[in-house]
Amino acid sequence: MIPYPQMSSEEREAEYQHLLAQFEDLKAQNLKLNMARGKPGEDQLNLTRGIFDIMRSPEDYLSDGIEVRNYGEMTGLPAAKRLFAEVLGCREDQVFVGGNASLQLMYDTVAKGYTHGLLHSSRPWCKEEKLKWLCPAPGYDRHFKITESFGFELITVPMTDNGPDMDMVENAVKDPAVKGMWTVPKYSNPDGIVYSEETIRCIASLKPAAPDFLLMWDNAYCIHDLEDGCETLPDILTLCASYGNPDMVFEFASTSKITLPGAGISCFACSEDNMTYMKKLLDAQVISYDKVNQQRHVLYLKDKAHMIELMRKHAEILRPKFQCVLDALNQEIAPLNIASWRHPKGGYFVSLNAMPGTAKRTLVLCKEAGVTMTNAGATFPYGKDPQDSNIRIAPSFPSVNELKKAVSVLCVCLKLSALEKLNKQ
Amino acid sequence: MIPYPQMSSEEREAEYQHLLAQFEDLKAQNLKLNMARGKPGEDQLNLTRGIFDIMRSPEDYLSDGIEVRNYGEMTGLPAAKRLFAEVLGCREDQVFVGGNASLQLMYDTVAKGYTHGLLHSSRPWCKEEKLKWLCPAPGYDRHFKITESFGFELITVPMTDNGPDMDMVENAVKDPAVKGMWTVPKYSNPDGIVYSEETIRCIASLKPAAPDFLLMWDNAYCIHDLEDGCETLPDILTLCASYGNPDMVFEFASTSKITLPGAGISCFACSEDNMTYMKKLLDAQVISYDKVNQQRHVLYLKDKAHMIELMRKHAEILRPKFQCVLDALNQEIAPLNIASWRHPKGGYFVSLNAMPGTAKRTLVLCKEAGVTMTNAGATFPYGKDPQDSNIRIAPSFPSVNELKKAVSVLCVCLKLSALEKLNKQ
């Protein structure tokens, strides 16, 4: 196959007509497939059936002597803190265990800065003239929307193979209006990039002008490896403290993609001083999160080793799905020189960069053929990809058979939109 | 027994010495009793053992065709909405089902006004010069703390036998800085007052100067009757709408004192326009609340009639506890003319008004004798009871035997502090 850019316009026209016919065939199948969100599939949900009746006897209602069925223990069950502390490599007293969603804890942390200010704020952020926030992109649309909803100016920071472009970050934090940065340090959403140790050290040692700069460390995929023997990141709390920034970072994690999406437990981890400060603010908001569900998770997940075993089972289900996407791209798209993509070793996404100016068009075509994808641009601040290139593929939810069909649709649409673009040039 | 105010100072001195001896005896028993918070007791927790393994088979994972174990359905399961709608007497589409705590939903509603403004706000509340809030008192300390934490000036509204003093409320809402009011319309915390229909109509027909005035209708004890045949309040959403105030009210409820405290489900109910507005704001914050726990509750609670049956069992446990407190007060305190109290027909508290100027001292003495009570003043804005009189008794948590002991301590302390006060006069 000749790469599209090298084709003559006649060759392109022939190829286009050929693909159009394929596309009409696909449309006629009335497909209804979804690769939009990082939702675990049904077989993954079934891995944790045992959690539904794990609390069987009266002694299960007690955890470290605490009656889990009654009010109290705002910061969470000690046993649940120990579990997260082991996974994240921090100390138990640095962990606050929340409800079913780390996203809500993240929103709430930014909201606290906005309404009350953080530990080192001179005033609440809502009293500031101008607020800015660093958004490594491509990134997680829901992160960006949180800070957008509070009126922050979102500053795009390009991603490199090692994480965010740190030259740009170091320069940007000289502006005291820059109040924080989103990060997904392991298997970044959507690129699947693992931040290098150098990048992580560079982040931990930042000297932001804002004394209340907030590093949002979303360790969403901390043990979500597709293969054995994947790397473990250094503990960011220790690292920040060692560089004199103990209060700069809040780390987040959840069991949403370990046990049940939207019915798991979540946590934030932070310095002792931040914990004291946040507890005081949270005391007006929270009596306690759902300790019964915390106890279910403690009993079911047991410890990190046991969790890793469970994550291996998730990986066994996910690996063929990732492979299916990558195989199709390698076979169908690679020879054409119209797109590039990464081969993630964990997380929930394959990030594809289509020929600039064709991502939106590709996804319009996908939709016409019954395949729903994350909106083009969603991985950038304000939902606007300046290159109109990045496409986030979420292969976890469909079955392998559905996925094969969905990816073949995507490939046809990528080709069609590339040819349209090339023919216009 | 001669009422204390009529005693001669010699008689009082003799009585005081007699009581001091009793008090020393009580202290020597090293009691550790708690009547501080409205926590259900262990026997109440055991009523709902069946909820722990109610999701047994694969069909239990589906509700109206929705997979409850996966992400999605931000506003909650339709079946859970139907359940709350039936209990509250509103429509299913007016209900948003949340997580384990209505308090968090309340905090969040006030927070949304503060950070983004409500539907009819001209600007977010954080941009206003001055913010005020109406607090019928005695009231719920956690309500007051929410608005205090956002910097509202708290305005105390006296409670009457029929609810808040509406002359004062009608006058107060003429001030556009007054942005809202807390209410607990049925079995108000702590008085156990049921707002009269006239009061409720008066509230629903308010014409506040602030276009974004927020009526916080905390229907915490909507079906929490101690006796059969208790009254049902008119639906506040319908009533507000009928007076041209459809968007003025947010109603709240939870199953915390129906199933499990801190592990139940909660909701808010509001107008269609408010729902549309809040959904847009919540979209940045919430993917979904815990639908698995919503499904547990739908399967376990079934419908309102079945819930009322369960509430009868709670009442059977609670009634003797309330009776124990009231019996002791009637026998020990009534003849002395040093305090008054109410006989609530539901809810979780007995509200006692001690001789003015003696509440704090009474609770210091209680603590010395090993009985923990809600802080004196907690039922008033800023934790300051201008009369130093109101004491909230929470009889639900201790066993009847513990309660007998705890109330006898309280009675001795009430007497001692009254005599100290009278002797100083």
UniProtKB/TrEMBL annotation, chains A, B:
It holds the Pfam family Asp_aminotransf. Keywords: Aminotransferase, Transferase. InterPro entries: AspAT_Ic, PyrdxlP-dep_Trfase, PyrdxlP-dep_Trfase_major, PyrdxlP-dep_Trfase_small. GO terms for molecular function: L-aspartate:2-oxoglutarate aminotransferase activity. Gene3D superfamilies: Aspartate Aminotransferase, domain 1, Type I PLP-dependent aspartate aminotransferase-like (Major domain). This is Aminotransferase class I/II-fold pyridoxal phosphate-dependent enzyme. It comes from Flintibacter hominis.
